Each structure stands twice: as structure tokens, then as C-alpha cells.
From TrEMBL:
One of its GO terms (biological process) is proton motive force-driven ATP synthesis. It is found in: Membrane. HAMAP family: ATP_synth_b_bprime. Pfam families: ATP-synt_B. Belongs to the ATPase B chain family. It comes from Pediomelum digitatum. It comes from the Eukaryota. It is a single-pass membrane protein. The gene is atpF. Residues 64-98 form a coiled coil. Its main location: membrane. This is ATP synthase CF0 B subunit. Keywords: ATP synthesis, CF(0), Chloroplast, Coiled coil, Hydrogen ion transport, Ion transport, Membrane, Plastid, Transmembrane, Transmembrane helix, Transport.
Length: 185
């Protein structure tokens, strides 16, 4: 009983040992070969493939966890930075307001100080002018007095003779004597 078709399509027929050999029918042998290769790959490669997939899964999960931690850290830093920014802006506004009022206060103080200084300078100027006027007036008085004395001496020297001189001295002594009596009384 020999089958001339050499086909595996008949399930009830198994070729005998005499017909053992290579089957060159590509359509019949490829699905069988592929299923055997795939079966061997699945059986032996299942552990390696699952290990590779598990390692890859663990790396992805670690990366996701690290990313989440970094994200949370970045959010915390952002919140801290925003809080610091609000604080600095508040301080800047306070300094700006205080600075403006301080500038206005310093400006008014400076203006008042300048007015005070100008008044003091005006007073010093007036005192200096008054002092110079008094000094000049005293100098003029001294010169006038000196000139009057020189004129009087000149007049007296020209008009005065010995007799007139003796009478004047006697009259002054007499006045002095009467004044002395009045004082002692």
C-alpha cells in the first residue's frame, strides 16, 4: 500500500518508513516547520522574553516614579519660589511706598534746612553789615573828634596867652572847689 501523493493532508494515513525522506513540497512543510520553530522559541524563549519584558517594565516604572518624584520636587520648588516672589514683591511695594514717603520727607527736611540756613546767612550778613557800619561810624567819629581836637588846640594855641591861661585855670579851680563843697554837704 503505497500512497503516491505523499501528502500530510490525509489524517488517517501515515507514511511508512520506506518513504522516509525530505518532503520538498514547500506548501506542506513550511507551516509545520514554522509551528515547530515557533513552539521551540516560545518554550525556550518564553523565560528570556519575559525576563526582558519584566526588566523593561521595571525600568519604565522606575523612570515613571523618578519622573513623579522630580515633578513633585519641581512643584514644591515652584511653590517656594512663588511664595518668595510674593514676599519680595510685597517688600518691594512696602519699600517703594516707604521710599517715596521717605524721599518726600527728606525733600521737605532739605528745603526746611536750606531755608533755615538762608535765614542764618541773612542774619550773619546783617550782623556783619551792622558791625562794619558801627566800625566805620566809630572810625569817622574818631577822625572827626581828632580833627575837632586839633582844630580846638590850634584855635586855643593861637588865641591863648599866659594871662588868659591863668584865668581859665583859676576859674576851673574855683569851680572845682565849689563842687567839692557841695559834694561834702
Amino acid at each position: 500500500m503505497k500512497n503516491t501523493t505523499n501528502s500530510f493532508l490525509c489524517l488517517g494515513y501515515w507514511p511508512s518508513a520506506e518513504s522516509f525522506g525530505f518532503n520538498t513540497d514547500i506548501l506542506a512543510t513550511n507551516p509545520i516547520n514554522l509551528s515547530v520553530v515557533l513552539g521551540v522559541l516560545v518554550f525556550f524563549g518564553k523565560g528570556v522574553l519575559s525576563d526582558l519584558l519584566d526588566n523593561r517594565k521595571q525600568k519604565i516604572l522606575r523612570t515613571i516614579r523618578n519622573s513623579e518624584e522630580l515633578r513633585e520636587g519641581a512643584i514644591e520648588q515652584l511653590e517656594k519660589a512663588q511664595a518668595r516672589l510674593r514676599k519680595v514683591e510685597t517688600e518691594a511695594d512696602r519699600f517703594r511706598l516707604n521710599g517715596y514717603s521717605e524721599i518726600e520727607r527728606e525733600k521737605l527736611n532739605l528745603i526746611n534746612s536750606i531755608y533755615t540756613t538762608l535765614e542764618q546767612l541773612e542774619n550773619y550778613k546783617n550782623e556783619a553789615i551792622h558791625f562794619e557800619q558801627q566800625r566805620v561810624i566809630n572810625q569817622v567819629r574818631q577822625r572827626v573828634l581828632q580833627q575837632a581836637l586839633q582844630g580846638a588846640l590850634g584855635t586855643l594855641n593861637s588865641c591863648l596867652n599866659n594871662e588868659l591861661h591863668l584865668r581859665t585855670v583859676s576859674a576851673n579851680i574855683g569851680m572845682f572847689g565849689t563842687m567839692k563843697e557841695k559834694i561834702t554837704d
